[in-house]
Recover the amino acids of this structure.
């Protein structure tokens, strides 16, 4: 059944209510309930029952369950590397021994560089960037909102621009379907590679992050956040609720342990190194066909296992203490995991409602060829913002965009790049996006504060990207 314009209502309710009330859980459930209410012809009790069942049904999908477990286990890693003195040792090494990081700009650049270098998987990128840099950005008075922005804006864009990961595998598969169906011709790998220069939003987003770090010329809500921390020393707004409990983020070094940065670096190396191994194994020898969710799951388990063996062998802690810290870290991630469950549940409800397909159908066959890439970009932004998923937007919009590009004789590569960039932009701004939630988690920021400070920057980057797509449409 098609629900037409009503399909836009649930995500709109959830997003506006979240921004207005700052109560994300209630807002997400309101969106889920609204979607189910529409699908059961406005019977409230049936809608309530379906809403609750929909939340439970989230765990029926393996990749979602792995992502939720991943968020719990990440808390354990964060707690363990703090208790072991790894974080304290790393800070001491960078600020005192080598004086590599000795300013606010240096602390932010560390997060930025990590986000560029680690492109294997967006969740891992966000995690490492936030966890490693947060103690330093706190030390040098960088707002948590600014750190969340850096983590978020260097994860998905870099993973899309350097697609030697699950992102690339997904996009190649989607493009491959269009090639097999005869909609477009060519090699899907080559099509993806040729679309990279046209991923304007991703390119501009990365450049803009560097600009704001280097110049310090913040504006809008982000400027207020930065002024707050500089004048009051408060990295969080008064009354803000960080998405991660302080039980996981403010763990003192275990008594009697000498801080050593290797206690942090080695577990993170294991975490990062396991990603390509996982992709290779799950892809049966082809990393581009590997499972990102499974690889992330394996990586975090391997890192935790390494922590246990290494810390006990080095007599940093015994098994009982290791498990105590493990459970403490897992407990600190309950808000994040709960938010992810609700975000995935509303994503499923919106998908069943056909929100993305309806929005894509609005412009299909109704636009001028020269404006094709620009309109596809805007549509990608809206769909991803409404649904909270860039990958879901790829799956919905890419087939339509390719058909439209062929019919309008528009630039195929620019159209593909516009889908990818639009999906990433909308995902960046959406409070119901899993990557946005993870960025708030890694930076220990208030989730809605992160969204409100990031949106103005994303909109400016999107406006520049839109102009470039218009130019490309008329020139090429």
């Amino acid at each position: 059944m098609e629900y037409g314009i009503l399909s836009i209502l649930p995500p709109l309710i959830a997003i506006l209510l979240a921004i207005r009330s700052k109560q994300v859980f209630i807002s997400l459930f309101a969106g889920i309930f609204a979607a189910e209410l529409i699908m059961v012809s406005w019977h409230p009790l049936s809608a309530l029952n379906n809403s609750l069942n929909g939340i439970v049904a989230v765990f029926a999908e393996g990749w979602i369950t792995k992502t939720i477990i991943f968020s719990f286990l990440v808390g354990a890693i964060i707690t363990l590397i703090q208790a072991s003195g790894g974080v304290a040792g790393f800070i001491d090494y960078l600020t005192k021994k080598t004086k590599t990081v000795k300013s606010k700009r240096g602390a932010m650049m560390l997060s930025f560089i990590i986000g560029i270098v680690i492109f294997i998987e967006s969740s891992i990128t966000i995690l490492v960037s936030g966890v490693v840099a947060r103690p330093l950005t706190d030390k040098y008075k960088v707002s948590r909102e600014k750190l969340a922005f850096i983590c978020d804006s260097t994860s998905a864009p870099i993973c899309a621009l350097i697609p030697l990961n699950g992102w690339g595998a997904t996009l190649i598969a989607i493009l491959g379907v269009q090639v097999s169906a005869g909609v477009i011709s060519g090699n899907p790998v080559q099509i993806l590679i040729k679309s990279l220069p046209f991923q304007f939003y991703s390119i501009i987003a990365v450049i803009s992050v560097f600009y704001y770090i280097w110049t310090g010329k913040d504006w809008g809500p982000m400027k207020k956040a930065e002024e707050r921390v500089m004048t009051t020393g408060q990295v969080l707004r008064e009354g803000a609720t960080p998405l991660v409990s302080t039980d996981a983020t403010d763990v003192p070094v275990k008594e009697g342990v000498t801080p050593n940065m290797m206690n942090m670096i080695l577990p993170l190396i294991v975490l990062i190194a396991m990603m390509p191994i996982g992709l290779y194994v799950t892809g049966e020898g082809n990393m581009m066909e590997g499972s990102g969710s499974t690889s992330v799951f394996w990586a975090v388990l391997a890192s935790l296992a390494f922590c246990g063996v290494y810390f006990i062998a080095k007599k940093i802690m015994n098994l009982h203490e290791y498990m105590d810290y493990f459970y403490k870290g897992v407990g600190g991630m309950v808000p994040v995991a709960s938010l992810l469950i609700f975000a995935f549940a509303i994503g499923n409800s919106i998908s069943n409602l056909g929100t993305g397909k309806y929005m894509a159908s609005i412009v299909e066959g109704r636009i001028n060829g020269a404006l094709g890439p620009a309109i596809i970009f805007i549509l990608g932004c809206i769909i991803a913002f409404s649904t909270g998923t860039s990958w879901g937007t790829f799956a919905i919009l890419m087939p339509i965009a390719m058909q439209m590009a062929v019919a309008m004789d528009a630039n195929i590569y620019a159209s593909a790049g516009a889908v990818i960039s639009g999906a990433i932009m909308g995902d960046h701004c959406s409070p119901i996006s899993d990557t946005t939630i993870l960025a708030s988690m890694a930076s220990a920021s208030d989730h809605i504060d992160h969204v409100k400070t990031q949106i103005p920057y994303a909109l400016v980057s999107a406006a520049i990207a839109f102009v470039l797509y218009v130019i490309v449409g008329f020139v090429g």
